[in-house]
Design the sequence.
């Protein structure tokens, strides 16, 4: 290898323009329109050419333009005013509902982050969610750092052939011209993370992106210390090669924890966004053993108590699995410092720890290392409980301890400038800092119909102009005939009802559901009195042949004579394209096959911009839908025959369009306004706006997870290391002797039929073996029955110890019969300790039923 000396050159800015440089290196410009406007005013054309990258813009400004800006007093005054607001945002939070708690610091781990156009390190919705998560953490002044990987090749650019075949073009990124800064030590050298792979060492440098008040640390393996094959570990996200994929996840989890340590950052709570960062838990165990001399079980307890895991997985095929032999190769060097044998390590990543043939699962590892596990919507909670039920096989599916926090979107990042200004006028000057306030959003009904509709029509017109421009560029690149290029001017109608379907192209999302009956669709779209148009956008994963075929089918139909003016496909769907779509659509169309969509947030972005939502009852729409805020496709039924389900749903979709959506949109008064449609927009904003945003999402995490976890940790460690050791010893004793726990008899002192208001006294005789009544909790588990004898819902009532015998104990409970019907009860025994983790069933299978 050539022995080069490296140096970096940065653009030189005059003293008067130094604020530009400071603002360029903070991603606040991604959601602050005033900061963004400063760079746009500096050079509007360059702002667009650089992909809205202020660092690259400053690097490319000509000397003449810099001199012009330096002497432009109007620009300087505007820049200084914006800079003053920029500094005020960073230093003087106007809205911070959570007072700083001494010692609380949350580390948020994610494999990808979608924050803004010029940092294309995201692969899809998971990354965009993570980006919105950090933005809201910044707005709410929550003590948080982000951890991720910095990929040398960004998200692929999609190009389509004349026949509709997707071609992927992967751009190589130049980090030195991005709003990123390399972390350096006192000698000016990059801070370097190091970790042991099977027979090699992997090194990575650390880049920092400032997301408002929240630092995001990204690890980059493309450094001279690594041989070529290791420099490529962070080349692309989610590589297929399992060996490289494991190295990526080791770098994210293990390397991410080490990076924070090197930077002097000591998080108290760790939040893992999906299973890719599960190995962070193992590294934290190693650190606790090394620094505090804990046993593996003690350290495991501490890590569990301070970890939160969010699962986005809905189907088994999406679960991250590794061959046990690969885990053995890579983790054998780590076993001595962890203090466990290989079998126990592999067991932590298996549903059945005793099945030696079962692959190692990162999601299972993350679940077993976390006291709190959550899904990302109410329906997804049920799906997740079913998916992971075998980890808690001793309890009913609905008792699987997976809760949910519905995802949300960072509203200021996604709404148009016109809508932002409208909200300022009618919702109040601080709406953006308090977007989950029901009272604030109720004022949406006060926006004048004329004003709201005028904004929406302008945005629709801009969407149409954008689509025509992109279509023209697509055709020119494909060397289409001049006549076809000129015909683009007649594609789409700025006044027609505009539906948008835009998201990842994959089979379960069913983008072609609306294309199932082309004759019926033709009548809908080409109605001369009530025209409708349909815009598609979305990328298929490079290996998803079925997804690519869906794109080809859509483009073939769009090019046909009867749909040429009414159906278009816009290639290369990204955050910039998404903004045009969500800001200009009349109707946001979402067609996933229930229950495969974990949440889905694109519709939330559209709703905040004044679009209405039409979707199947899947993901967030299952809990958000009501007739006054949008429309629903089909019902909540799930069919075994997928073709039949598609047939039912497509017929429902056409029916809703023909009989509800289109008539309402074109129902105009004398003034030409669709007043009932506008009323539905306002109702949607007022009802959905306060709940489906990332501020509300983050506040749920803060109140239900972060603060509770922090309080529990303080209680657990208040007695020092001894308290942790005592609890770990108690855990081991409980697990050792639980087989001796059983319910010997359960009976009640009452007739078989009771009247409402009467009491049912129930007694249980239990044997505890080597354990004591202080080690357990005995509950009545009861509820009403459905016609097939199954519990429809359940409640839990603690039973009291009333008598001790020779090895047996008598517990008693009393139910009040509050409603009529058929009921059933069971006796349940679970471990109990004042210092037990704050999640019921935290000891997994240790449950005994009567």
Sequence:
């Amino acid at each position: 290898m050539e022995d080069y000396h490296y140096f970096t050159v940065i653009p030189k800015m005059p003293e008067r323009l130094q604020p530009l440089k400071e603002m360029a290196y903070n991603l606040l410009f991604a959601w602050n329109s005033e900061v963004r406007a400063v760079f746009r005013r500096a050079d509007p054309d360059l702002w667009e050419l650089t992909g809205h990258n202020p660092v690259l813009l400053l690097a490319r400004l000509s000397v003449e333009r810099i001199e012009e800006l330096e002497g432009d007093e109007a620009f300087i005054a505007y820049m200084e005013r914006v800079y003053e607001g920029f500094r005020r945002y960073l230093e003087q939070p106007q809205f911070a509902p959570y007072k700083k708690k001494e010692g609380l610091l949350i580390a948020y781990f994610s494999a990808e982050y979608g924050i803004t156009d010029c940092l294309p390190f995201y692969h899809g919705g998971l990354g965009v969610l993570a980006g919105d998560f950090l933005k809201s953490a910044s707005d709410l002044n929550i003590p948080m750092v982000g951890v991720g990987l910095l990929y040398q090749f960004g998200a692929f650019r999609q190009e389509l052939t004349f026949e509709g075949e997707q071609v992927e073009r992967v751009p190589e990124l130049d980090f030195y011209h991005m709003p990123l800064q390399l972390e350096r030590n006192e000698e000016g050298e990059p801070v370097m993370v190091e970790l042991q792979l099977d027979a090699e060492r992997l090194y990575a440098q650390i880049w920092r992106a400032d997301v408002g008040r929240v630092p995001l640390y990204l690890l980059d393996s493309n450094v001279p210390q690594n041989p070529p094959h290791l420099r490529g570990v962070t080349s692309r996200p989610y590589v297929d090669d399992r060996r490289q994929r494991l190295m990526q996840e080791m770098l994210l989890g293990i390397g991410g924890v080490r990076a924070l340590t090197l930077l002097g950052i000591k998080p108290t709570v760790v939040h893992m966004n999906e299973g890719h960062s599960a190995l962070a838990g193992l590294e934290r165990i190693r650190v606790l053993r090394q620094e505090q001399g804990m046993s593996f079980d003690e350290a495991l307890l501490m890590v569990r108590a301070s970890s939160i895991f969010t699962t986005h997985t809905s189907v088994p095929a999406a679960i991250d699995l590794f061959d046990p032999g690969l885990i053995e190769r890579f983790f054998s060097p780590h076993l001595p410092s962890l203090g466990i044998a290989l079998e126990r390590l592999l067991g932590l990543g298996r549903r059945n720890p005793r099945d030696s043939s079962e692959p190692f699962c990162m999601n299972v590892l993350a679940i077993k290392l976390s006291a709190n596990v959550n899904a990302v919507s109410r329906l997804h909670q049920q799906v997740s409980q079913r998916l992971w039920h075998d980890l808690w096989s001793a309890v009913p599916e609905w008792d699987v301890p997976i809760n949910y926090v519905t995802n949300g979107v960072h509203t200021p990042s996604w709404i148009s400038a016109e809508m932002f200004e409208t909200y300022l006028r009618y919702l109040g000057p601080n709406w953006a800092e308090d977007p989950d306030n029901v009272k604030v959003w109720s004022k949406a009904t006060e926006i004048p119909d004329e004003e709201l509709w005028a904004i929406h029509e302008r945005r629709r017109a801009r969407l149409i102009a954008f689509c025509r421009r992109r279509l023209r560029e697509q055709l020119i690149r494909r060397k289409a005939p001049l006549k076809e290029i000129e015909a683009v001017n007649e594609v789409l109608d700025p006044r027609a009802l505009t539906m948008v379907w835009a998201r990842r192209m994959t089979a379960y999302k069913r983008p072609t559901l609306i294309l199932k009956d082309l004759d019926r669709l033709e009548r809908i779209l080409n109605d001369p009195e009530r025209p409708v148009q349909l815009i598609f956008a979305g990328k298929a994963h490079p290996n998803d042949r079925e997804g690519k075929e869906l794109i080809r089918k859509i483009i073939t139909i769009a090019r046909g004579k009867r749909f040429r003016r009414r159906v278009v496909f816009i290639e290369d769907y990204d955050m910039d394209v998404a903004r045009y779509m969500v800001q200009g659509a009349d109707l946001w169309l979402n067609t996933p096959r229930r229950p495969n969509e974990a949440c889905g947030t694109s519709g939330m972005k559209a709703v905040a911009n004044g679009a209405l939502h039409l979707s199947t009852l899947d993901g967030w729409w299952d809990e958000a839908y009501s007739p006054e805020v949008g429309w629903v496709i089909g019902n909540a039924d799930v069919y075994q025959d997928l073709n039949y389900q598609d047939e039912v749903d497509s017929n429902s979709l056409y029916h809703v369009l023909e009989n509800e959506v289109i008539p309402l949109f074109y129902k105009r008064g004398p003034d030409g306004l669709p007043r009932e449609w506008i009323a539905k927009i306002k109702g949607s904003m007022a009802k959905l706006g306060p709940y489906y945003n990332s501020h509300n999402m983050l506040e749920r995490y803060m109140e239900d997870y972060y603060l509770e976890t922090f309080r529990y940790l303080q209680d657990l460690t208040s007695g020092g290391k001894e308290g942790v050791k005592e609890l770990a010893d108690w855990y081991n004793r409980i697990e050792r002797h639980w087989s001796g726990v059983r319910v010997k008899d359960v009976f009640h002192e009452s007739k078989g039929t009771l009247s409402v208001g009467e009491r049912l006294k129930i007694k249980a005789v239990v044997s505890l073996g080597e354990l004591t009544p202080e080690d357990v909790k005995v509950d009545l588990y009861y509820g009403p029955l459905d016609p097939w004898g199954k519990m429809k819902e359940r409640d839990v009532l603690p039973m009291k110890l009333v008598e001790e015998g020779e090895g047996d104990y008598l517990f008693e409970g009393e139910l009040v019969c509050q409603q009529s019907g058929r009921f059933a009860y069971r006796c349940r025994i679970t471990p109990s300790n004042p210092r037990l983790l704050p999640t019921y069933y935290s000891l997994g299978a240790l449950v005994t039923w009567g």
In short: The chain is about 40% helix and 15% strand.
